[in-house]
TrEMBL record:
Residues 319-413, 448-514 form the 3-hydroxyacyl-CoA dehydrogenase C-terminal domain. Residues 140-313 form the 3-hydroxyacyl-CoA dehydrogenase NAD binding domain. GO terms for biological process: fatty acid metabolic process. This is Enoyl-CoA hydratase/isomerase/3-hydroxyacyl-CoA dehydrogenase. Pfam families: 3HCDH (PF00725), 3HCDH_N (PF02737). The lineage of its organism: Bacteria, Pseudomonadati, Pseudomonadota, Alphaproteobacteria, Rhodobacterales. It comes from Pseudooceanicola batsensis (strain ATCC BAA-863 / DSM 15984 / KCTC 12145 / HTCC2597) (Oceanicola batsensis). GO terms for molecular function: (3S)-3-hydroxyacyl-CoA dehydrogenase (NAD+) activity; isomerase activity; lyase activity; NAD+ binding. The keyword Metal-binding does not apply. InterPro entries: 3-OHacyl-CoA_DH_NAD-bd, 3HC_DH_C, 6-PGluconate_DH-like_C_sf, ClpP/crotonase-like_dom_sf, NAD(P)-bd_dom_sf.
Length: 531
């Protein structure tokens, strides 16, 4: 409990021995205690020490090493609990106090306090905008795939009645099965009781087509990332629903301004970018178009709070805040591959830094086909950027490697689903490296981490400079809650401040001399350290 910070119910506490008595009327129960019971009761200071349990301590240490790598306080806490069995209470308390005083002034403690208060500021963001006259009671979600079903399930568990719209009766049946899987998972994981699951199930309805949609407070399209498909859905939704209905898009990359061009009432249109899986991930990017009204934003932010999400307000750009930084991160990682690093090294280096997953394991999980489609879309619109490395295209077009879903991506996957090094991928990397005339060299883990962090910081500075994000703290929340950036480092921009302006400027300047095509010193760097 100390390591994880998770609470337990009173019933659990009684079984565990944390408390001695449980009553509906604790004061009355205490008054009614027999004198013999009161005399036998001992103050905690006088209770015998617990028996040593080295196995439990080692299990706890292993858990901390696996689930909380890089963090100092959890290991210290385990050690303190373990030694309490063999140390007099007075001395154990003195050791605990000393450890606390050391830890509270550490960089990690400052980072965690920064995140704590930044999260609470974000959840209160809705106070800056008009509050809707009433809370949403009904919603429509277009698309019953993995993302749409998860959004609908999230809304339903928050007490909102949801109609899921699909193209045909067969698609609607498929969507119903996706929803039922989520409900069953909620029961199996202990999140939903059987009665609560029935209530959620009753709030979910699937239909085909737009002909008989009920009046609703909110409609969210969750179709795949195709501009023509999404605009067609949005036009049909607007025509089928009352003018006061808020209409949202769950696009991850597409231009929200352009998506609103065909709407008669663009002021009620907003981007609500849920992160996958939507019923688990806490981040919600609320994307404001040039014509989104303050009232619409207020309603979106109130809904985010109701759903238990961390909302971050974003302006319009390709990928918004998080996916724009992610694209730069992946481009830089691919560049390291053709310069001499390998897939395993890069993933291991970023895990060692504290990321939940390395960039290649994460891309295999989301699917190389998604990355490929985005690369092709951007190439048509803008052309490939300077120094683009065509590795994703090779793996998808030439070898049909789509990630875990196809059993092969950046890694090979066996029947057990475990990743292993791919010689085919290694040979393609060498081939592209030769074609691009790179002289390969070895990279240390620190060099890999430094290069990728600088890439992300540079992109984040541009995002702030353009006003897409309001403040550096927003970047921190997006990276922590959307992309597995280590919470104990405080987020990307907080970590940049810890590195220091002079050090960052020197690192960027050195990279500019080495490769002026890909690098520059971010203009916003000075302002980051003024906030």
């Amino acid at each position: 409990m100390i390591v994880t910070g998770k609470a337990v119910s009173a019933e659990q506490a009684l079984k565990m021995g944390l408390i001695q008595l449980l009553a509906d009327d604790p004061l009355g129960a205490a008054i009614a205690l027999d004198d013999d019971v009161l005399e036998a009761a001992q103050a905690p200071d006088n209770l015998p020490s617990p028996k040593p349990n080295h196995v439990a301590a080692e299990v706890a240490r292993a858990h901390v090493a696996r689930r909380m790598p890089g963090q100092n306080a959890p290991q210290v806490a385990v050690n303190l609990v373990a030694t309490s069995a063999t140390t007099p209470l007075h001395d154990a308390l003195a050791s605990e106090r000393s450890a606390f005083l050391d830890l509270r002034t550490s960089d990690q403690a400052r980072a965690l306090r920064h995140v704590f208060f930044t999260e609470r500021t974000a959840t209160n963001k809705g106070r800056a905008y008009p509050r809707p006259s009433r809370d949403a009671e009904t919603a429509i979600v277009v698309g019953g795939g993995n993302m749409g079903a998860a959004i609908a399930y999230t809304l339903a568990t928050a007490g909102i009645s949801v109609t899921v719209v699909e193209r045909s009766a067969s698609s609607a049946e498929w969507a119903s099965k996706n929803l039922q899987k989520l409900i069953d998972q909620g029961i199996s994981r202990g999140i939903l009781s059987v009665d609560a699951a029935k209530t959620v199930e009753d709030r979910l309805v699937t239909v085909s087509g737009y002909d008989a949609l009920p009046p609703t407070d909110l409609a969210i399209e969750a179709a795949f990332e195709d501009f023509a498909v999404k605009t067609a859905i949005l036009t049909e939704l607007e025509g089928a629903l009352p003018p006061e209905t808020i209409i949202a898009t769950n696009t991850s990359y597409l231009d929200v301004n352009r998506l609103s061009d065909g709407l008669k009432h663009p002021a009620r249109f907003v981007g609500m970018h849920f992160f996958s899986p939507a019923h688990i991930m806490k981040l919600l990017e609320v994307v404001r178009s040039d014509r989104t009204s303050d009232g619409t934003l207020g309603a979106a932010l109130v809904l985010a709070h109701r759903l238990g999400k961390i909302p971050v307000l974003s302006g319009v750009c390709d990928g918004f805040i998080g996916n724009r930084i992610l694209s730069s991160y992946r481009r830089a990682a691919n560049r390291l591959l053709v310069e001499g690093a390998n897939v395993d090294e890069i993933d291991a280096a970023m895990r060692g830094f504290g990321m939940a997953m390395g960039p290649y394991a994460a891309q295999d999980m989301s699917g190389l086909d998604i990355a490929y489609a985005n690369i092709r879309r951007k190439a048509v619109a803008e052309g490939n950027c300077c120094g683009h490395v065509p590795l994703v295209e090779r793996l998808v077009e030439k070898h049909k490697r789509l990630g875990r879903k196809s059993g092969a991506g950046w890694y090979d996957y066996g029947p057990d689903g475990k990743p292993s090094h791919s010689e085919l991928v290694a040979s393609e990397i060498l081939r592209v490296s030769e074609e691009m005339n790179f002289t390969r060299r070895e990279f240390s883990a620190d060099e890999i981490v430094e290069r990728l962090l600088l890439t992300m910081v540079a992109e984040a500075c541009d995002i702030l400079d353009e006003g897409v994000a309001e403040k550096p703290q927003d970047i921190d929340l997006v990276m922590i809650h959307g992309y597995g950036f280590p919470r104990w480092r405080g987020g990307l921009m907080h970590h940049a401040k810890n590195i220091g302006k002079d050090r960052l400027t020197a690192l960027f300047s050195a990279l500019v001399k080495e490769d002026p095509c890909d690098w520059r010193v971010p203009r916003y760097l000075e302002r980051v350290f003024a906030t």
